[in-house]
Write a sequence for this structure.
């Protein structure tokens, strides 16, 4: 599948995966399970992107968020680099207008 292509081609893709609810945690896609928490904050994702920018000297080229869209307001430095994969019955209220949204069922199950 597409995800395994990214994971298995580190010389081409510098893929970093994170889980988030009220905090952002990096995960190892090959070895870790993801445990959901409570609450959803999109603004902490931007905070993490900005901290990473300081460390890596550049902002992420692409930020992909899988969500139902219910969270808090976020104003990314580069909203055009944010891609939102939305579950059924999702909200776009908190998604920046310059970001791109997709129904996850249309992307994953085509």
């Amino acid at each position: 599948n597409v995800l395994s292509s990214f994971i298995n081609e580190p010389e081409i893709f510098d893929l970093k995966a994170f889980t988030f609810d009220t905090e952002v945690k990096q995960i190892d896609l090959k070895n870790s399970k993801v445990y959901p928490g409570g609450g959803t904050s999109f603004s902490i994702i931007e905070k993490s992107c900005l901290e990473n920018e300081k460390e890596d000297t550049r902002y992420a080229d692409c930020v992909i968020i899988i969500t139902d869209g219910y969270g808090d307001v976020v104003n990314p430095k580069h909203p055009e680099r944010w891609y939102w994969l939305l579950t059924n019955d999702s909200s776009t209220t908190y998604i920046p207008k310059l970001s791109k949204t997709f129904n996850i069922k249309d992307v994953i199950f085509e």
